[in-house]
Design goal:
The protein has about 90 residues and is of the alpha+beta class. Helices cover about 30% and strands about 30% of the residues.
Length: about 90
Amino acid sequence: MPAISMFYGILVLMFFRDNKRQNSPHIHARYQGDEASIAIENGEVLQGSLPPKQLKMVQVWIDIHKEDLMLDWELAVNGDAPFRIAPLQ
């Protein structure tokens, strides 16, 4: 489960071969004790939850880096290590 970014205490992860349970491309975000799976396509929460402020930051970050995230998704689904992506600043 490689960390692909971290900003404002939010850890963003993308798991290897993680397309069995949730077929759509997604990331996992952790903040303190909360965790959510979030769709890359539209920022929709697929599972779990984050506080509203942190969720909004992750959704903005996804929107900015959507193309890079889709490339990372292809790598991770095939078992390859995804690249790190710049944090939200």
